[in-house]
Protein: alpha-L-rhamnosidase
Amino acid sequence: MRIPGNLLIAILLFFSLKTNAQSLNPPSDLRVDLLLNADKVWKNGLPVGLSLQQAKQSGSTYQMARIANQNPYFSWVITDNSSGSFQTAYRLLVASSVENLKANKGDLWDSGKVLKNQQTGISYKGRKLRPNTVYYWKVKVWNHKQTESDFSKRTAFLTDSTLKPYQTAHQPLIRSLENPVVSKQLNNLNTFYDFGKDAFAQVKVRVSSAADGDTLKVHVGEAIDAEGQVERKPRGTIRYRLLKLPLQKGEHSYDLKFPADQRNTGPKAILMPHYIGEVLPFRYVELENSNNKIIEVQRYTVNYPFNDQASSFKSSDTLLNQIWALSKHTIKATSFTGFYVDGDRERIPYEADALINQLSHYASDAEFNMAKRSLDYLIYHATWPTEWSLQNLQIAWNDYLYSGDIRAVKSLYPQLKPKLLLALARPDGLISTRTGKQDSTFTKSIHFSTFNGETVLKDIVDWPQKGGFGLPESYPGETDGFVFTNYNSVVNAFHYQALVCMSDLAQALGEKKDAALYKRQANQVKQAFQKSFIDPETGTVKDGETTPHSSLHANMLALAFNLVPENNKASVIAHIRTRGMACSVYGSQFLLDALYNANEAEYGLQLLTSTDKRSWYNMLRTGSTMTTEAWDTDYKNNQDWNHAWGAAPANVIVRKLMGIEPLSPAFQTIQIKPQPGTLNSARIQLSTLYGKINVAFNKTPAQFQLKTSIPPNTTAVVYLPKQTEKDQLLLNGKSLKATPEGNFWVIKNVKSGPQTWQVKY
Structure:
């Protein structure tokens, strides 16, 4: 029988569409030891088109990631957008050559078909890896319908010269060549260039000179004056440099060198690698008028590899959008050392900076190893504030919760224990640095030595304290008049939170006795805290046992860490509202956490978008394009314009306003709990090890609409705003039942894929 041509085409098309409908795209975003693009190669920070093997054999010096772990971890993203999709099996191949991998021969390791849904933290179980060797790998998966994908694109990694049980992997620092967005001649006939945003960078110029020996004067800075020139005498530590460039006859390109700054290249600073050289944060370049022909002015920006497409946010509030962009850019730009440092003035890692930087980095990019490296560094290079030692435990918990990789914590576990400062505790569990217990055994246990003249830990509360830097002694500082006593409520709030984190970490490590011990100690501290620091008359939290003073800090930290009894929350919140932003940019992290944790979204949004002097808007108004160290130079006379501890909005917008937080390691279980306050609409994208999370809401008086999309192999707990018991709930247009919980409707075990939720009032 002969089939007519048009019928044959229809049959073939039918089977083609059926096959495509059942196909499963290969995995993407392959990582080794959490690193994306471990097969990339750079020279002097600039990308080159070489493979790892070519770079290794060339004899030249190149930069690439090196994997030092004897048994590295592998992970990937499943590219299946169908509803409820999850992985049921995988097969992973590791080979010694491209040819073997092409032939599907895993001569180092062929996992076979492994019947697991695990797609992160897959430990290498093949033949022993050799140092200084390139290996190639790929993976395929099966989904819940037993559909098999093709193998992923191959990727590669290079082992380090020495292999160890564990060492955090990292990428090299990279450079990117940028052109100015504006160039113009000034009234003084100098030529002015604006690169649009401040960044840690180096200047590159191309000049034609008629003779040898001429000098080109180049002004480089972060700020401009009233005449539109580069500010020659900026306030605080806002950066400016004058570079004098000797010219050669003819047309030449010049890479200008910044001299080292003694303050930020000292023994405690993170130094720039030789293949990068010195950098300076700047936005503007001004060339003095001369007889030379300026052909081109560019800059090399320097940062740790950063995926600009990993996250996005846009809302109905244009100021909030600007604050998000300010904070996100800050995280990228201040990664210029590969560690979380305190900005350009010192380039020293501090625990408080690292904690905020870590959370905002996770909110901006799915990058986890800079936090691990910074934690490892800080454990062995302690700074002087009491609270910041305790913050190591929060950093460690965040590391595990967001990355799902506990190896760094496991390797540091014995060193994390002393950071709880239990040696400073009295019988009821409260700790004090002022009761003579800081002997040499204690300071040695926490790896503390003299720091800025301090020989023991001291309570800080916030920074700067009374008197400030270069300000009158009468200046109140950023502590809201906090009264320091022997037993301090802020210190003990951090102590409690550190114990909670340590208990959870011990549980994750299988240290059950430790987990139970730290949980008991946390409960003991909570009881002692409430007994010692809550004022029975006002219901608010006092600064210390022997003072009635109740600062913003005492109350916001107790609220943030769930130390306030339910009956006292109304009093504490009311008191917090009277204080405004009476804390530093660092303190704002905990203030906003406290407000959103207490469902005070409207006030939280009010502070985020405030146009007062103590606001992120003021940073924009003053001309900075990175978050600043203080709300204004008037509050800290030596402040800089490149401080990531001011970038709390990046993580607060993601974690609290849009409500996206991990409930289990690496976001395998996701919380989506938007708290819009007065915001009418917003949408966000967040990248995780499992893939992208997308959340968008639109709010009117009549209804709240939420659109969510979560990656395969994950589930979510979704919270919808509740007005009354008569609210009508819909999921994808169909009636939905949910559990009421306070001001929310809660839906658990939400499957992967796109969903549309509605609450009609």
Notes: The first helix runs from residue 5 to 22.
